Write the C-alpha cells for this entry.
Amino acid sequence: MQKWIKVLLSALLVTSIVGCSSKGGVDENADADAKANARNRSGKYGKYGAGGANGGSGAGGRYGSGSGRQDAGPTGGVLSERVIYFGFDSEEVLPEYQNIVSAHAEWLAAHPDSNLVLEGHGDERGSSEYNVALGERRGLSVSRSMRLQGVSDAQLRVLSYGEEKPATSGHDEGSWQQNRRVELFYPPH
Amino acid sequence: MLRHFGIMLWLAVSAMAITPNVRAELTVDITQGAEGAMPIAVVPFQQPTLPGDTISEIVALDLHGTGKFSIMRESQLPERPVPPTTPDFPVWQTAGQEHVVIGRVVSGEGAGLVAEFVLYDAIRGVSVLSERVPFKPSDARHAAHKIADMIYKQLTGERGVFNTRVAYVAASGYGNDREYRLVIADTDGEGDRIVMTSPEPIMSPNWSPDGKRLAYVSFEDHAAAVFVQSLSSGDRHKVSSLPGINGAPSWSPDGSELAVTLSKDGSPDIYVLDVASGALHRVTHDDSIDTEASWSPDGRTLVFTSDRGGKPQLYTVSAHGGEPQRLTYDGSYNARGVFSPDGRSVAMVHGGQGGYKIAVMDLGSRNLRVLTSGRLDESPAFAPNGQMILYTRKDGGLDQLAVVSVDGKFKQNIRVKGGDIRGAAWSP
C-alpha cells in the first residue's frame, strides 16, 4: 500500500515536471499511468531490451534490434543494462533509469576511445515519420544527460528507428511500454 | 451479401493460375459496401484459348472495389450472351440491372489474343461502348484492368486507376531473420514484385510523378538515408545521408525535387532537395518537430506535421519557405497530411481517444471528415483520380492495406499474407 502511494506520488511529480518541459503531452492522466506502469516494470527490463551486454538470446516473440548482435561495451552490474524505457509521448529519463545512464556515462568518460549509439524507438501509435522524430528526441535526451556527466559529444550518436523495430509485436499498452525505449549499443571497433 | 460476393471473388482470383509461380502477397476482401451503387452485370467472357475464367472476374472485382458499382452475382445471371449476340434487355431490366458487359477472347496477331467486349445500357437497350483490347496471353490481368478502366471512365466520367500500382513495406521474421521488403503490386494486390530487401528498416516509399522511380528511407547502413531507385533498371542512389534523421521523402510535382526531413541542425526540419544537383534549400526553421512534408499539385505549397503548437498538427508553408500557417485544429493529433490530386483537400492521420483514423479536410470549408474507424490507421495516399485513399491498418494483430472511398462510404481490405505492412503509396 505504502509502495503504491509512493509510486503514484512520484509519478505525479514526474508528470508535473514533464508537463512544463515537454511539448506534445497528450493526456496527463494517461501520462501518469504510463509512468507508474513503467516504474512497476523497472527491475525486469532486461527481459525485453537489448538483452544484456553480449546481445542477448532473442528469446520469445521479441525481435528488437539488439538480438544476437555483437556489442563492444562494458559488462557487469548495471553496466550490463542496455535499455531505458520512457513514458507515453515523453522523452524524460525517469529517475529509476538514471543509474544506468550515469554508469554508462562514467564508463564512456573513462574510455574516450569508445563510442555509443543511442537508438531511439517509439510505440506504433500515430504516424511513422513523426515517431522517428519522437525516437530521436528520446535519444537526444539520454545523450544530453551523458554529456552533462562528461561524455564527449564525439563519442555519442543518436539513431532513431521510430516504430520500425519494435521490441515486441503486440498492439496493447503492455507492448507499447516495452517499445518506447532507447537502446544503448556499443559498435565493435 | 456484398461481403460474401467479395470473398467469393477473391477466392476465385486467388485460385487463378495465369502465372502459377507468382503467388500474390495480397488478396482483397470487402469490408463495407456502398449505398446507391450502380447495378451492373459482367457476364463471363468466352475465352476458350485462355485457360482459367479470368478476365470478367477481374473486371467485376475492379469495378466493385470502387464502391460505385453493385455487381450481380454470377449465379444469378439470367442469361450468358456472348458477342455478337445481343443481350435480351427486358430480362436484364427485370433482374434490376442498368448495365451489362459481355465479351469474348479471340486470336490476335501471332501468338497474341484480343479481348472484345461490349458495354450495354440495359434500360435503353443500346451499346454504349465497344472495344477490342489486344494482349499477350501472359498479361491477361492487365488487359482486364484496362477493360475495367474503360468501363469505369464511360460510366463515371473519371479516370480509372485499375492499371496503377501500390508500393508498401512488408516486414517479417524475428531476431536475426527479420527482413524488410519494399514491394510494388497491382492495386488488387496481384503481380507483387520485391524492389529491395534489407535486414534493417525500410520506410516511406514515394512514387516519382512519372511512376518510374521510388524514393524511400533505408537504414541499411545503420543510419537513416534517403534513396532513389529506378524501377526498370533497379539502379539506386543515396541522395541524402546527413547526420541525424533523413526521412519522409516526397517528390515535387515536376519530379525534380524531393521534400525531406533532416535533423542535421538539431531538430527535424523540412528541406527541399534538388535531386540532380544535390542542392538543399531549408524550408522550416523551428526547434520543434517539423516532418512529413507533401506537395500541393501546383508545387507551390507544402503541408507538413509540426508540434510547434504543443501537439502534432498540420501546417502549410510555401515551398520556398516563409511563415507556416496552421491548417488543423480538430483534435489533439493530426499528422501525415497529403494533398488530393485536385489540391482541394488534404487527407491525414487523425488521432484522439478513439485511436488513429484517416480523415479528409476540405480546404474550402475547412470541414474535417473522419473516413475510417480503425484503432491504428496510418499512411494515407490518394488514388491518382482522387476517388479512393489507400492506407494501412492493424486489426486483431493483422496488418493490412486498405482503401476507403473519399466519401467514406466504401471500404475494402487488401490483406497481406505473412508480414507487417508499413507505409503505403499509390503510383501516378
About this structure: DSSP finds five helices and four strands in chain A. The radius of gyration of chain A is 16 Å. The CA atoms of residues 19 and 25 of chain A lie 7 Å apart. Chain A has one domain: 46-185.
